[in-house]
Specification:
single chain, 350 residues, mainly alpha
Length: 350
């Protein structure tokens, strides 16, 4: 865990893993090079689309939704690359399979943690709805109940989610194992490992930003330095500098680096609360109630959309994992069937 006085984590010292994947002496066929370049160019475009037009949008639900969509698209792209490589699972190295399965478990856990936090924040919307309902009644008793609900919302959103803490350690484990096994005598394998490395790095970055927004802290952000040989390196580095820089600037200024929509609701709650005590400015009260209702609805709708994107990413990882395990079982069954057949036939008489 990062120390409070030094929230910025250094660039991860991975060196240049692509020297193991695609050394200078290796030559890819035009077809494999085209597959790899197309994949990396597309990933660069997807990262470029995440560059925010306004710095304040970085911690907004709209940006997080776009980031989750891009992440799903990138993982779908790598599935298409695997198909294009025509590299059946039976030809995969055991280490590649272990990496894929281990990473998929970690990512499923991260998705579950994110879904848990989204559900928790959405549960807080019930406090806001209850408060707004009581404020509409405009009686002293109902106002007291409304203030109690507003207090409940403030306590709820400021509480900690244990699953997010576990999520941070899971992301750390995912990042710490970014290095890849050495690939020998397999051009297709080298292309696959290079693509998977890029996907894992981008996944670590995006999930880290989402985790920072949910946990309201910049301490868990990790900086990545991709090898210059990949087509998406510059785009990624620029995006990371902008996103991480803004989050750390907010954090270092003494503010809480939380969701923009949550901050807007909090501002409305803090403005409305004292008005509900005096009840001597009905027009200001009416405006504040309307403002809170609109911002609460915006938060709830944004959380619902983000929940769908996180669930979609979860399904992509799950189906990919299931497909790999299914192919492994088919390959194992075919091998066992062949072995039984050979055994039944007995030795060949020469």
């Amino acid at each position: 865990m990062s120390q409070p006085q030094d929230p910025q984590r250094p660039f991860l010292p991975f060196g240049n893993p692509f020297q193991m994947i695609l050394p200078k002496s290796s030559n890819l066929s035009p077809r494999l090079l085209s597959i790899l370049n197309s994949f990396e160019a597309t990933m660069s475009e997807r990262l470029e689309s995440l560059k925010p037009k306004d710095m304040e949008d970085i911690l907004s639900l709209s940006w997080m939704i776009s980031a989750a969509k891009s992440l799903s698209a990138i993982h779908t792209d790598v599935k298409a690359l695997i198909t294009s490589l025509e590299l059946p699972v039976s030809d995969w190295d055991e280490k590649w399979i272990d990496i894929y399965l281990d990473n998929s478990v970690k990512l499923l856990d991260v998705c579950i943690a994110f879904s848990s936090e989204i559900s928790r924040l959405n549960h807080g919307h019930l406090f806001l709805q209850c408060s707004l309902h009581n404020l509409d009644c405009a009686t002293p008793v109902q106002f007291t109940k409304a203030r109690s609900s507003l207090d409940g919302w403030k306590q709820h959103v400021s509480s900690k989610n244990p699953r997010l803490e576990k999520c941070s350690s899971t992301l750390d484990n995912l990042i710490d194992t970014l290095d890849l096994p050495k690939i020998k005598n397999s051009s297709k394998g080298k292309v696959l490992m290079r693509a998977m490395y890029g996907v894992r790095l981008v996944t670590g970055f995006i999930c880290g930003v989402l985790a920072a927004a949910f946990s309201r802290s910049a301490d868990k952000l990790s900086d990545f330095k991709p090898p210059e040989t990949c087509l998406w390196a510059d785009t990624f580095t620029n995006l990371q500098a902008v996103v991480h820089g803004q989050i750390r600037n907010v954090h270092s200024s003494g503010k809480v680096a939380s969701l923009k929509e949550c901050d807007l609701v909090h501002t409305s709650v803090m403005k409305l609360y004292p008005l509900s005590l005096n009840e001597d400015d009905p027009e200001a009260m009416r405006i504040s109630i309307t403002d809170l209702r609109q911002r609460a609805d915006m938060l709830s709708q944004g959380l619902d959309l983000l929940a769908k994107e996180v669930d979609g990413f979860f399904q992509i990882i799950l189906t990919g994992r299931d497909a790999l395990l299914g192919n492994l079982r088919v390959g194992s069954d075919m091998f066992n069937s062949t072995q039984k057949s050979n055994h039944a036939e007995g030795p060949t008489v020469r």
